[in-house]
Target: L-serine ammonia-lyase
Amino acid sequence: MGSIDTSACDQLQFKTPWIETPLVESASLSRAAGCRIFLKLENVQPSGSFKSRAMGNQILSHLRNPANVGRRVHFYASSGGNAGLAAVCAARSLGYPCTVVVPMGTKPLMLDKIRAAGAADVIRHGETFSEAGEYMRETIMKTSSGDDQDVIKIALHPFDNQPIWEGNSTLIDELETQLPPSTSPEDEKAYNDRALPLDAILCSVGGGGLLNGLVMGIEKRRQKKQITSSSSKPNPIHLLAIETAGTDSLAAAIANKSLISLPKITSQATSLGAVRVSETTFQYAVSPPPGIKVHSTVLSDADAARGVLRLASDERLLVELACGVCIEAAIGDAATAAPPPETAGAGAQSIKKRKRSSDETVVTYRDEGYGDDRSISTDNETDQEVEEVGEKLNSKLKQLVPGLNSQSRVVIIVCGGSYVTIDMACEWRKMLDAGWA
Model:
């Protein structure tokens, strides 16, 4: 037998099934968080989430496999959420069919969106994603008809796969060119020994594919800059791995000091509903590469809803609970304690240090629908009141990365997601007003 000729594969050119997304600085969120907040808008991907990178690159890796060149290919994904939708969008954009197998409990909204995206078929089976996946691999993919005897059937994993992580790592490639350059000697010095000119990245964690990609991308960038690790003066990029209570498989594994599976998913943020994170995610969390520090943190569904509503109000972006949880982690109590413009983004520590004369007053301009609750100082605010404002700036971000100040740079991965409607957001508002915590 001769060897496989890879020349045809090397010459293949495929459309990239994802786009470079904008990075925008949010004035209102920066003011609330006490640092510079940049939003990486993955919600504008073709599928509505970062999964376009993950599933798209996984599909490309199969199409570039010499064994698949010139063959009929059919992709299969077991997901009732954003991974399944992204798989269909990516496969269709490249001219290939994709069938999605979903659990019986998948909501009609997501079923309709997957079908509308052009899925070859949507099959419901099992109570969990693992049951749906097993049925897909052991039954659906092994059943052949006369039509598909020569078709190569390829199963796609939603998060635990090297090409998935490599696809997600392209976020870092984009941040490298999108982040503003350092504008002062102090900034230059602060970021010189970091892979990127930023202090922290916030991302939500389900199975861990996004976190893995971010770590891989930062590590690749560190090696490119030839930054050596130095234990005497650590200056890492902080990665906040954020889950909701009831999807917190990473936090549970860290507490257990080994991988474990949750008995079930109890959070409304079902897009984060992996009962077990990947082995690589766990290893990155407990022992990340040099120059990275991973923080695991868990918020409630109500916190996630607050984040969704804040992003909708301030930035006119509607995202899932799984995404909103990152917004709330960044601003927390600061959402109701925004500092005045001259100290906007100064953070708790610098606000406490700021002094005013005893005859100052404060005039507050209410939000008129533009997400901009501004306080303009004139006279009469006491030092004690200023300090109390600083005390309220106590978000998860500030707790885990306490040295942040007004010039610190924080990127939130707005991962997006399609399981959200205006009616759902209105219902969350009613629940919060009724005391949902």
Notes: The CA atoms of residues 247 and 273 lie 5 Å apart. The chain has three domains: 12-49+161-335+400-433, 50-156, 338-392. Residues 162-178 form the longest helix (17 residues). The longest strand covers residues 237-244.
